[in-house]
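Letters spell out the chain; backbone shape is given numerically. Take this protein:
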Amino acid sequence: MPSTGTTPSRTRVSTLMSKVPEITLMFWVAKLLTTGMGETTWDALDIAFDQYIAVAITGVLFVASMVIQFAARRYHAWSYWFAIVMVSVFGTTVADLVHNDFGVPYTVSTVVLLVLVLATFALWHRVEGTLSIHSITTRRREIFYWVAVLLTFALGTAAGDWTASTLHLGYLPSGIIFGVLFLIPAIAYRWFGLNAIAAFWMSYILTRPFGASFADWFGGPPGRGGLALGMDRTAIVLTVIIIGVITYFAVSKVDRPQALDADAVGADAVESEATTR
């Protein structure tokens, strides 16, 4: 998958350290895992608890994850991916409630959320001049980033349910379709010159229905093409794998933003110079 490219904003003096990871293959693996985990976790909570209690649990954890992430001064694997996980769960909650409680068809919610995502990107670009995640170095850009992330998760949830339920394709065919669509931006970027930032966000949006469709296939009912392994069991397995991946990130620092490495080198140089004086 393509990275989002380097922009001049990475080398300017900024109000914030970069709090978004470098885009590596493992980034996409982690992102796909969180999409499936978010889908199955909400379904498991909705089954295990009264719906209002489940909404309260996901809502409180979502707010807590945002507070922790915004309070951080630089990128931390645990706080960033905790926020992503909770956005995944909460995005699923929003999309499912709109359909189940208010009776909004998946076709309508998919279209509305797509418009909201595009409007967010348009406003973000108009205000900041770039959609590169490497430019998330001010509070305002950070807000734009997380609003976009939340909306893309909700959009992906609605789109996955639309193909599986409204179009009656089932979970596995939906997962395969979205898997192919997920790869197309990378191919277009690599061989046909698609803009790196556009390719990134297109693939980012598609990770949600791609990962969630396969998670639903494992845990969902046979009536919709699922293997009926249980949403709770699927969520637990995915959570354990995600914890392992985040531990790898935290220990190896392979996803550490390059801007932080540059800052660290600069700080070391200043300290060395001060010591020799």
Observations:
- The chain has one domain: 21-269.
- The two ends are 47 Å apart (CA to CA).
